[in-house]
Amino acid sequence: MTIEQDFFNQYRLMYRPFIKQLNIQLEPYQLYSSQWAVLRFLNDKGPHSFVEIANFMTIEKPSVTKLVHKLIELGYVETTTGKDKREKLVHLSPYGEELVQKIQLQLKSFFEQALAGVPKQDIDIATQVLARICMNINQ
Amino acid sequence: MTIEQDFFNQYRLMYRPFIKQLNIQLEPYQLYSSQWAVLRFLNDKGPHSFVEIANFMTIEKPSVTKLVHKLIELGYVETTTGKDKREKLVHLSPYGEELVQKIQLQLKSFFEQALAGVPKQDIDIATQVLARICMNINQ
DNA sequence: TTAAATTAGTTAGCCTAACTAACTATATAC
DNA sequence: GTATATAGTTAGTTAGGCTAACTAATTTAA
Asked: Which parts of the chain are coiled coil (chains A, B) (predicted)?
């Protein structure tokens, strides 16, 4: 067992329990983790088109259609026409903006608990490792 | 954006591209990443029952049933009766053992490429961070 | 200038990888 | 000896992706 294999084993092993807990946190807001990822992206990076959301999340366009339409239905986001008649810009609704702040506050303590006992410096290193892998994998 | 939130964002962002690439690596063996996770567990930790596999992978029993039955169908694993008539122990077949060695060799270079440019020390730290989170989340 | 190619988003239908509820068969506890 | 617990299975559901094929709008090029 090399240290690389060990890392990826551990990476995968963490996924299910993490997503499960995250979904429990999000349940009061009728959100799943994938929908939350979209809200967070719009909050952090501002309004973006469907294609831009797809590129950022490295998922396909039809998957974005489903996610965003659900968020529209919930009243958390709205769309406006983009730079031409084809493009639609997705942005948080006023209600959505409030909600994101509220959820982020709640998740803050969940994340802190999950990382309890881990030095800040190690969290930073781990984040950089994950970012580097993303870069390496996506060419 | 706290460093904890940043870490988990990055964690989630990596998942899809990683699993996608891993599945491409496994495709010649008619395996998906979840089935590979079972083979690797049996290889690393020896024969185990369905319940033990479920506990280790933190998935439910019916999910294990499906995974293992597929692996039996492929001829990669076999079952023997366990310590009583209810329990079945799952173990790699001779063919399965060979295959695991072969796949591990192939994945070794995939993993090394994915971690290219990351110091060994940082990989270790990141692995420990992931392990600690697993522990914290699963109580 | 109009025909071909490209781009943004949608629809329909599929798949993986999980889940819960309810079941059978066996084993254990009271 | 009956009630309870445990191992595994079956049936049906779900989240969260996917591809193929479509419409409408835009750009390229002949």
From this structure: none
HEC assignment per residue over A65-107: HHHHHHHHHCCCEEEEECCCCCCEEEEECHHHHHHHHHHHHHH
Q: Chain C bases under 7 Å from protein CB?
A: 7-13, 16-22, 25-28
Sorted by where each starts, the structural domains of chain B and their CATH numbers stand as: 13-137 (1.10.10.10)
Write out pLDDT tens, residues A125-136.
999 999 999 999
Instruction: Quick: pLDDT tens for B69-107.
Output: 999 999 999 999 988 999 999 999 999 999 999 999 999
Q: CA end-to-end span of chain B, whole Å?
A: 26
**Cα–Cα nearest to A7, from A137, A139, A130:** A130
Provide the token pair at B49: 């029952």
